[in-house]
C-alpha cells in the first residue's frame, strides 16, 4: 500500500480539497517534489503550504505514522529536512532527531484507484492494461515507446560496460563477448558469453591466419572436443571422425602452449533447439568471422547503414560443418549461412547497442545518433511479444518500436510494475470510467 501512496502523492490523484494536518492546519500542495528511489526521504524539494505558511523541503510517506520511528527516522539527521509526513493511518506523533515535531497529514488512496490497481495486479492476462490500449492518445504511446527504447539501450550499455571492465577495459574484447552472447540467440546466450570470456583473444590472434587452428581453439575452449561424443554426451562413433581427431590434436597443442582450460560442456543446451542453432555450428561461424577479421570494433565503427552491418556479420561454417551438425553424424550438404532475420537480430542486439555504448564511453554523440538511426531503419522483430501488442492495438513499425515493447514486457509487465508505466498511469487515471 505504501508504494501506491507514493504514486497517489506523485500524480496528485488524491482529493486536493480539505487537506489538513492531524492538528487541524490547512494543507495546500504546490509541488509534490522529486521522487527519490534511493536512501533518504521519499520526495525532495516539495513545496507545501501548511497553515498559510509556505514550506520548501522533503516529504516522507508511510502506511502508518509509527513506521517513522520503526524505521529509525527519529534518530537520523537525514530526515530533519522533512516538512510533511504523509500517512494512511496516523497512529503516532513523529519528531525528528532534534526533537522537532514533524507535521503529519492523513491521505487516503481513492477507492477507484485502489480497486483498479488490485485489478492490474490480479489479472493473468498480458498485458494487464489491455482494456485501455485502444483508447490511448497516439502521443502517449509514441512518447512512452521512445523512452522505453532509450531505457533498453541504456540497460544494454550497462552490460557492455561491465564486460569491458571484466576484460581490463578492452572495448574490443567487450564487443567480441557481446557478439558471442547474441550468437546464442537466447537459449545459449549465457553459455556463449561464458565461452567468449574464456577465449584468450591475444593468444588466438597469433593463429588468426589459420582457420583450422582458430576453430580448434574455439571448439576446444567450448568444451566440445574432449569426450568422444557428439557434444551432447552421446556416442556417435566419433573415434573414427578424422576431423575431430585433428581438432583434438591441435587443441591439445594450443592448450599446452597457452595453458588453456575449456568451459564445462554441460553449459550448452540442446533441448528444443533447431540443429541450425547447435553450438558447433554457431562456433564454426564465429571462427570464420574471426579468421576473416570481421569481429573487430573498428570494422563495426565503419558501418553506416543496416546493410553495412549485415555484410560485416554475414558468415558461414567451415567445410566440415557444411555436412555435419555434430561430430560424427553426417548430414545433407548445407552452407549454413546466417539468415537475414538472424543478421537483423545481431544488428539489433549487438551492433547497435555497441555503437551506443562506445559512443557514450568516448563521448561521441554521432555514434549514439547512428545507433538510433539504425534502429529506426530496421524492420521490427516478429515474436510472440510483438504479436501480442499488435493484437492489443500497438503495431511496431520499426525495430526501435519492437525493442521498446520488449523492454515494456520484461521491465514492467512481467514485474507488475504498473506504477512506473505510463500505460498503467493512464489505466489508473481513467479508472473512474470503468466503475
From TrEMBL:
InterPro entries: DUF2851. It comes from the Bacteria. This is DUF2851 family protein.
Amino acid at each position: 500500500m505504501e508504494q501506491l501512496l507514493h504514486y497517489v502523492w506523485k500524480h496528485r490523484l488524491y482529493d486536493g480539497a480539505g487537506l489538513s494536518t492531524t492538528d487541524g492546519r490547512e494543507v495546500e500542495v504546490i509541488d509534490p517534489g522529486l521522487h527519490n528511489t534511493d536512501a533518504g526521504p521519499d520526495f525532495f524539494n516539495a513545496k507545501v503550504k501548511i497553515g498559510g505558511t509556505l514550506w520548501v523541503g522533503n516529504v516522507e510517506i508511510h502506511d502508518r505514522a509509527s513506521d517513522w520511528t520503526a524505521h529509525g527516522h527519529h534518530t537520523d539527521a537525514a530526515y530533519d529536512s522533512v516538512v510533511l509526513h504523509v500517512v494512511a493511518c496516523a497512529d503516532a506523533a513523529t519528531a525528528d532527531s532534534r526533537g522537532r515535531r514533524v507535521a503529519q497529514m492523513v491521505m487516503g488512496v481513492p477507492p477507484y484507484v485502489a480497486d483498479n490497481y488490485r485489478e492490474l495486479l490480479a489479472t493473468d492476462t498480458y498485458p494487464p492494461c489491455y482494456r485501455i490500449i485502444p483508447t490511448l492518445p497516439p502521443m502517449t504511446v509514441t512518447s512512452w515507446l521512445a523512452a522505453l527504447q532509450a531505457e533498453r539501450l541504456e540497460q544494454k550499455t550497462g552490460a557492455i560496460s561491465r564486460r569491458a571492465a571484466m576484460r581490463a577495459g578492452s572495448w574490443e574484447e567487450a564487443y567480441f563477448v557481446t557478439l558471442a552472447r547474441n550468437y546464442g540467440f537466447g537459449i545459449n546466450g549465457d553459455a556463449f558469453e561464458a565461452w567468449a570470456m574464456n577465449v584468450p583473444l591475444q593468444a588466438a590472434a597469433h593463429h588468426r591466419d589459420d582457420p583450422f587452428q582458430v576453430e580448434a581453439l574455439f571448439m576446444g575452449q567450448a568444451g566440445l572436443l574432449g569426450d568422444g561424443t557428439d557434444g551432447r554426451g552421446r556416442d556417435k562413433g566419433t573415434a573414427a571422425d578424422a576431423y575431430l581427431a585433428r581438432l583434438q590434436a591441435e587443441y591439445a597443442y594450443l592448450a599446452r602452449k597457452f595453458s588453456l582450460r575449456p568451459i564445462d560442456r554441460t553449459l550448452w543446451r540442446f533441448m528444443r533447439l533447431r540443429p541450425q542453432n547447435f553450438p558447433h555450428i554457431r562456433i564454426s561461424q564465429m571462427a570464420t568471422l574471426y579468421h576473416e577479421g570481421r569481429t573487430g570494433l573498428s570494422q563495426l565503427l565503419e558501418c553506416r547503414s543496416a546493410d553495412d552491418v549485415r555484410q560485416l556479420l554475414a558468415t558461414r561454417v567451415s567445410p566440415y560443418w557444411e555436412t555435419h551438425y555434430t561430430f560424427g553424424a553426417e548430414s545433407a550438404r548445407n552452407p549454413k549461412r546466417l539468415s537475414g532475420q538472424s543478421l537483423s537480430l545481431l544488428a539489433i542486439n549487438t551492433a547497435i547497442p555497441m555503437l551506443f555504448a562506445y559512443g557514450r564511453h568516448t563521448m561521441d554523440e554521432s555514434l549514439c545518433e547512428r545507433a538510433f538511426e539504425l534502429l529506426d531503419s530496421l524492420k521490427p522483430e516478429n515474436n510472440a511479444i510483438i504479436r501480442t501488442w499488435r493484437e492489443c492495438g500497438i503495431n511496431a513499425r520499426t525495430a526501435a518500436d519492437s525493442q521498446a515493447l520488449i523492454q515494456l514486457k520484461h521491465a514492467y509487465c512481467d514485474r507488475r510494475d504498473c506504477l512506473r508505466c505510463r500505460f498503467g498511469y493512464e489505466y489508473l487515471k481513467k479508472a473512474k470510467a470503468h466503475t
